[in-house]
Amino acid sequence: MEEDLVKGKKERYLTTNQGAPITDDQNSMTVGERGPVLLQDVQFIEKMAHFDRERIPERVVHAKGAGAHGYFQVYRSMAPYTKAKFLQDPDKKTPIFVRFSTVTGGRGSADTVRDPRGFAVKFYTEEGNYDLVGNNLPVFFIRDAIKFPDMVHAFKGAPDSNIPSASSAHNRFWDFISLTPESTHMITWLFSDRGTPRSYRMQEGFGVNTYVWVNAEGKAVYVKYHWKPKLGVHNLDRHEAARLAGDDPDYLARDLWDAIARGEEVVYELNVQLMDIADELEQNFDPLDATKTWPEDKFPLMPVGTMVLNRNPENFFAEVEQAAFCPASIVPGIEFSDDKLLQGRTFSYNDTQRYRLGANYLQLPINRPRVPVNNNQRDGAMQSGKFSGPVNYEPNSLAGGMPMEAPAGTARVYHVEGEVTRRKISKTDDFDQAGERFRSLSKMDQEHLVDNLIADLMHIDKPIQQRVIGNLTKADPTLGQSVAEGLKFEMK
Q1: CA spacing 20 to 30 A to 50: which of 229, 291, 344, 441?
Q2: Which residue is catalytic, options 27, 62, 129, 448?
Q3: What does pTM read for this prediction?
Q4: Per residue in 10-28, pLDDT tens?
Q5: Choice among 27, 129, 135, 367 that is catalytic
Q6: 62 part of the active site
Q7: Contacts of 19 (CB under 8 A, 6+ apart)
Q8: Which of 66, 65, 72 is nearest to 312 (CA)?
């Protein structure tokens, strides 16, 4: 039976868990081609909610991590661009907690394997918590969150053998990548030496997604975040990373802990790129596409402030393991764009934490805001709040109407209208920026990228090799040809 299905002798079609046919599993339901994702997209919600509950208690992704406490201090007021209070006063130090992590490996995996690194920052601001959840690479494998479960399934343990693609079952990783051409740009980053950083203290961080800053007058601009390490960017080559994975699998976590324990401060500078929303459609790429970067010569980096890490956790489980981040944790002055990957992340992250840690995970000390929390949510697993009185609803008169709705400031004018559809973004290209990235590298970095690709691709089946080489060639003929020659693959 199973063999017949594999050979294609009997067709099967995708369905929801209710058995309804799925005609498009590539694109979320949005308002128009580029509008926000709709909550009524039950196909996406079902797929993502099931995915979020597939592992317990380990994180589905970003399972292994290290963390540190510190503070953030803005250089000057960002009032012309955002009303977020923590970005106004140069004399104010906002407490923060940062969690660095690998993405695909489990809690017992090695730190130095080739993998994106999570770079999540929790700002404990006077207006509530703000989570800036990103990676050490500026782009991502996919542009629509509906593909995230498929991506992670392809990278994690195989359902039959439990052998992960990231270690030795390379066919599954490259099968997905080769059939997802939009990932080509990410591959030029991940398989460069950026994919094996020398230290969490010596890697860049990126918000990856596009956000919106809104000022007190309601004027909005698009924003992209960049963290720049004071120590510069330093990486391991493939051979040194492999050696350390065996000799010291906790190398990156140890390096961060030891540096702070010695009294050294780990310093990053926050920079942003800003784009007028009116200029969005004037670009030759979609600025909201998470597989794309914004050219810095056109949208220069603007320094915003400094983040200093200076205190190690006192209890790893309570602080690092139970730390929960979500891009939906925003403060006034920061909003979401219609970036399809970001729209999905705003649901998924909190949902997976409710499953992993419980309904009241925000009451844990590491996740609790430093400002009072007032609402009518009660009960649930591990409820530790202290409540009294008969009122747990709004509006009410029995508690004097408290808590009442906060006064509204000047809001961003945001009009949404369009056809409800599932469509790929039309103004996009899977290969242009991947080729630009390759050509921007030094000769040595180009050689390392090609060598790293060959070392991984040599383990996979020829038909998948052919698809990968085809995508790389579309990005840059020299890149594709170099990888093909290294694999002794004859291009047809």
Answers
A1: 291
A2: 62
A3: 0.91
A4: 788 888 887 778 889 899 9
A5: 135
A6: yes
A7: none
A8: 66
